[in-house]
Amino acid sequence: MAKTQLNVRVDESTAAAARRRAHQRGLSVNRYIEELVKQDAGEAGRAFVDAAADFMKQYESVFAEEFGAPAPAAPAGPSGGAGAGAPGSERRSRRAKPAAQGKR
Fold it and tell me: Within 1-104, where are the H helices?
């Protein structure tokens, strides 16, 4: 991983707190800040997914009216896989059928 120099000015009390917390965790200040950024990004991602789920729930009836009701989830089969052994659960080939000879 390439390292990038980042010059950021923060007040001394913030810098001291970052140094103290990094030391408590056995990390360098740079590594501590990197972990904070990753944590923040993860929290933002979870917040987005939660907001999207709330949106879908609020407008569920509108989506159902426009696109039809969603298909019910298939129950887990005896082997634990969804729909395992259920009729119609065989894999289908995605290969295109050969074109009839003589036709183009």
Answer: 12-25, 29-58, 60-67
